[in-house]
Amino acid sequence: MDYRVNLAARMLANKRGSLIGAVLAVSIGILVIHVNFVIFQGIYDAIIRDMTDYRFGDIFVSHEEEATIERSHVVYTNWFERVPLVQSATPRLSGSADIEFRSMGEFHEEYDVPVVGVEPVSDIQASKIHTTISDGQYVYARNSIVVGETVAEDLGGVRVGDNLKLIMTNQGGEENSKRFVVTGISKTAGGQGFDTSVIVHIDTLRSLVDRPNESNSIFVKLNEKNPAAALEIRKQFLAAYANDDLKAQTIEEAAEATLKGFRSGIAMINLIGYFGMGSSAFAIVTIQMMLVNSKTREIGVMRAIGAKRKDILMVFILQGMIIGAIGAGAGTGIGLAYTTYAKETNMQFQGSLALEVNYNWSKIAETALLAFFLAILAAIYPSYRATKLQPVEAMRNV
Amino acid sequence: MSDIVLELQNVSRIFGEGDTQVKALDDVSFKIKRGEFVLIVGSSGSGKSTLLNMIGLLDKPTFGKVILDGKETTTLKDGQVSQYRNEKLGFVFQFANLLPDLTVLENVMLPQQIQGISEDIRQNATDLLIKVGLEDQINKRSNKISGGQAQRAAIARGLVNRPTVVLADEPTGNLDSVTAGKVVKLAKTMAKELNQTFIIVTHDKHQFPDVDRIITIKDGKSYEEENTMEITV
Ligand SMILES: Nc1ncnc2c1ncn2[C@@H]1O[C@H](COP(=O)(O)OP(=O)(O)OP(=O)(O)O)[C@@H](O)[C@H]1O
Ligand SMILES: [Mg+2]
After folding, report:
1. Ligand 1, pocket residues at CB < 6 Å
2. Which of A11, A175, A318, B129 has the lowest tally of Cβ within 10 angstroms?
3. Residue B46 C-alpha, separation from nearest chain A C-alpha, in angstroms
4. How confident is the model at residue B2 (pLDDT cuts 50, 70, 90)?
5. Cα(A65) to centroid of ligand 2, in Å?
6. What is the pLDDT of residues B36-94, one digit of tens each?
């Protein structure tokens, strides 16, 4: 082994406190970035996941200009369902209603509650909103209604089996009303579902607003997450119905408005993480300066017996590399342990949405490498200072 | 090859400036031949260490020349000076100054490693350690041996590159008189066996009987006290 490597390693091994301090600084810097990634990228991906599952699917078709698609959805859903990669396609229609509820003699009323019309059979295939029913079951009959938990509370505590009256205004401005039986209460962690809406059968909603056969959107679900396939299927779909003035968005496009602000938030948090790493570099500078200052006589001796400035430089830069390597290894190891823990336990915070945890290997490698090089960079100044020590230091008789 | 291994020509070393100026060495000249065992003596503050630092290329004279192995050294660059120190000089310090992070053997191997030699370095170092009587201490950490043992190891380290001159500044200054006596004896045995030039600074010349020459320093000037060889050319 090269004597400089040997010396660098021995010096560190014999200054265990300094070594541990510097390694901790590096690994904590990495850990902060891992934890940030798990939490904030996890929330971001969880929002995409929930929006895909509940609101948009992998491809979301709507009219380019109008609020509704007049042509029967059957044409489109049939087209999609012939594509092997597509699991299911389902129409949705939305509107808003005033809701009246009477319970134990008390009268409750809510205005302009969003109403989502679904086709239960295909919706269960395409969307996961039916899994959010915390009590009761999903829409199954023309007069059944699923009430979002927030709405249920606002109406004074709606329960399964209760009766509700919905009053809606049709295209001509006339009011239509209908009584429903509550079959389920829907609740999602994080609220990306329909907690503030009610869900009814699409045909019931169509007749209430006098829009037979119409829908707002087609929700398309692929067999598995596959953004490239989504883009290709979308392209073919738009080509097949080029004259229908339709718009088809991937989940990333459909959710863009929600996600945009979030992304800059993540960028900000990452920046803070990198600042953390930067300050760990300063910790290394300080620790290594102390090491250099405690080794002035040894450095003088080495110089006296012929070590060149660049040999001294090398010894201390090598220490930076050792610190960086151990720190990057330890930090990445602990970071991965945390990530695995978060993934296996479906980590969530106080009942909010469960994080969608993924291993981003390129980012993990990038972070480790960055920390490693930062440690070397941090070693440059102390190492340079060490080369400035004079060989006469060895002669000091104190 | 000339017999003169070291020559100082009108060397002066001045520290500081103006009123606080100290002339630590004042126009010192002498020559030293191969194999000589030389003592530099003088009272405290007389300039002995300063002189040794000049010879050891650890510091440069304000005026004058230091010629080592026929080469004028005061104009050399830092890297060349380091190489000269490594190849032509051996150092023995007052406090042994072994590197505490390394073993005794590694300390003795170090000058060869710095030189970039890779062959037989372990063997050379081991041989020398046996010669100085440290065969039992070879693999100990160098801060785990006694002062006398450390000074023996330091002598081995000073000798391992077969330098032109071995320099020692108060090598016994930190040892009790019995141990000091042993170290002195070792140095003299080595000098004789290897025909090795030694220059030793001491304030106690009685510790070193029968040396070839004694140079006395007083107020920065040198005087040849006991002159057994011709020094003026
Ligand atoms: N780096 C320096 N800066 C200023 N003055 C110095 C320096 N080094 C030595 N001196 C001065 O030069 C003079 C000679 O010092 P030197 O260390 O050579 O003495 P010495 O003979 O080795 O003494 P001692 O026996 O105490 O070791 C002293 O007056 C000392 O104060
Ligand atoms: Mg001195």
Report:
1. B 15-16, 22, 24, 42, 44-50, 203
2. A175
3. 15
4. low
5. 95
6. 999 999 999 999 999 999 999 999 999 999 999 999 999 999 999 999 999 999 999 88
Q: Let me know if residue A182 belongs to a domain.
A: yes
Cβ contact B159:B128 at 8 Å: yes
Who surrounds ion ligand 2 at CB < 5 A?
B 49
Tell me: do A43 and A118 sit in the same domain: no
Residue that finishes a domain, picked among A187, A218, A249: A218
Q: How many residue contacts between A and B have a Cβ separation below 8 Å?
A: 84
% of chain B exceeding 70 in pLDDT = 95
- Residue A389 lies in domain: 3-49+259-395
What predicted TM-score, i.e. pTM, was given to this entire model? 0.81
Record the tokens describing residue B54, joined without a space.
Answer: 């000049």
Q: Over the stretch B87-118, which tens digit does the pLDDT of each residue have?
A: 999 999 888 899 999 999 999 999 999 999 88
Strands A144-148, A175-186: pairing is parallel
From B14, B17, B21, B48, the mutation candidate for ligand 1 (largest count of ligand atoms within 8 A of CB) is B48
Which domains are seen in chain B, by residue range? 36-60+76-224 (3.40.50.300)
Pairing state between β A144-148 and A198-201: antiparallel
Distance B79 CA to ligand 1 centre (A): 26
Q: Is the ipTM of this complex over 0.95?
A: no
Say if the Cβ atoms of B87 and A306 lie within 8 Å.
yes
Identify the residue whose C-alpha is closest to ligand 1 atom 16.
B47
- A36 and A98 in a single domain? The answer is no
Nearest C-alpha in B relative to A10:
B101
Total domains in chain A come to 2
| Secondary structure (DSSP) of A155-212 | TT---TT-EEEEEEE-TTS-EEEEEEEEEEEE--TTS-SSTTSEEEEHHHHHHHTT-T
Tell me the mean pLDDT per 10 residues along chain A, length 398.
Answer: 92 92 93 91 90 93 90 93 95 94 90 95 94 89 94 94 93 90 91 91 94 93 92 95 93 87 88 88 92 92 94 96 96 96 87 86 95 95 93 72
